[in-house]
Amino acid sequence: MDRLVAAYRALRTAAPYELLGSLRAVLLRHYAIGEAELRLVDYAMSALRPVESGPDGGGTVSARTGPAGRAFGSQRPFVEPAGRADGGLLTVHLPVSVRGNTTGVLTVRVPRDRFSADVLAELGEIAEALGHELAVADRDTDLYLRAGRTERLTLAAEMQWQLLPGRSCSRPEFDLGGHLEPAYSIRGDNFDWATSAEHLTLSVINGMGEGIGAALLTNLAVNALRNARRAGLGLVEQAYLADQALYGQYRGAAHVAALLLRFELATGLVTVIDAGSPRVWLRRRGAVEMPAFEAQLPLGMFEDTEYRTEQFQVEPGDRLFFLSDGVYDAASPAGERYREKALARALSNSGLLPPAQVPRAVLGELAGYRGGPSPEDDAMVVCLDWRG
Fold it and tell me: Which of 65, 188, 212, 333 has the greatest number of CB atoms lying within 10 Å of its CB?
């Protein structure tokens, strides 16, 4: 326990840009670990990039395959099998995350004679503590944000990624994950969530337009919804105030399609406002269907729009998918829409993946369906598993 306390103290007191150096000193002193490397997932969630790397990006590995990718994908520690050339050291890959928001992988080389199940458990706790400190450090340094980029983001994409609450979230009642493509040039799609002791509030946004204009529109919509939510207002008031903010700025020339949901954590009762929203699909007991909600006007289209709520019930074991038009209406080279056949198949095929991995898997299948990696429209997938 003393060495865990030492690790926590070192991480808490380190300068934001010196987290890894301070952690290495503790690992060497208390665990005889002389090698430790931190890799962070890139915006496309396809690569794990080292925080300390040369200009050629040396040390980058796949986020989907290999030992580090296995730890990242499963969110469980992975110990590489010992080999003759390992010099008496075991290579251990530890997932780094914050309350379910997957961040990266910490790789350490542990002397075999110092390794045990207790040591592995302690190293897992240290990796989790590192994840929390990384989230705090991002407020004061660009080091870790820069490490997660395989290419430069457009200004619109910079605005959109900074707006997100995270890419995944986990609580006893649910697991939640979302992803945006094209990751380095996303424009108008976004999602937001917030939890309390009683509720999960989720919004998925599909803003019209291109480039910075679309990003500004979405930023205004998301922050108007947050402003109303943080004032303690209900879904109807949130929709109304966001609608007025958008109409006041754009006078109906630009609007936002949105789906607003509030889940009661104790009962699974969901209150919904469908404001010209992204599509919802439900997988329940192996069958995939599309719930029908009352279609209402997008936010900002007209002045003084009145919104109404409706309700439906989620059950333990349900999986919900929220999809923007860039997914639903994507076309194959032959002109067949993704929604016609391939979408239901993709959603079923992802059934064994955790929600944090589902959006990337669906968008990967979508890229193959389109016949190329560059979409004509933004594509957003959010996946929610309800445990109740």
Answer: 188
